Amino acid sequence: MELKNLAPWRWGERKVPVRSELQSSHGSLQLDFDRLFDDFFTTPFGLSMTPFSQSLGDFNPTIDVSETDTEFKVSAELPGLSENDIDVSVDHNILTISGEKKAETEDKRENYYRVERSYGSFRRSIELPGEMDPDQIEATFKNGVLSITMPKPEQDQAKRITVKTS
What we know:
- The chain is mostly beta strands.
- It has a domain at 1-56.
- It contains 2 helices and 7 strands; from the N terminus they run H-H-E-E-E-E-E-E-E.
- The protein has helices spanning 29-42, 51-54; strands spanning 63-67, 71-77, 86-91, 94-109, 112-127, 138-142, 145-151.
- A hairpin with a 2-residue loop joins strand 3 (86-91) and strand 4 (94-109).
- The protein is elongated, with a radius of gyration of 20 Å.
């Protein structure tokens, strides 16, 4: 954790917890504690995505968050799921993506019988910079990728001002 992040005027900055591909699930203990300490000061009430909280479930989809002048975009990789397995909700300024993955395979052959079942559930919550209108949020699911588009509230959109010469 950097000391500059302890400054009170930086406490209001919002950082979205997103897991990097470079982080392994067996990361060094020092990095895990650093992340845990960082999350204590920067994430609200248990929305931490440290390796400690990630290890609670087997299935933890990766999420990308981006912003344009007019909207926020969230995409989540959810391979093997259908749109019926996914739930998207927004409560004030918290976007939550959750779902279940159930799979069963059965193999019957002469003198051989095998049944395998797997189950996994996930829940990811992201703090949004402001309250969104749930009626304006669009979610699409294609080829295992969930895409969520949320228009920015009118007051949050950047406005261009033309500079005139006098």
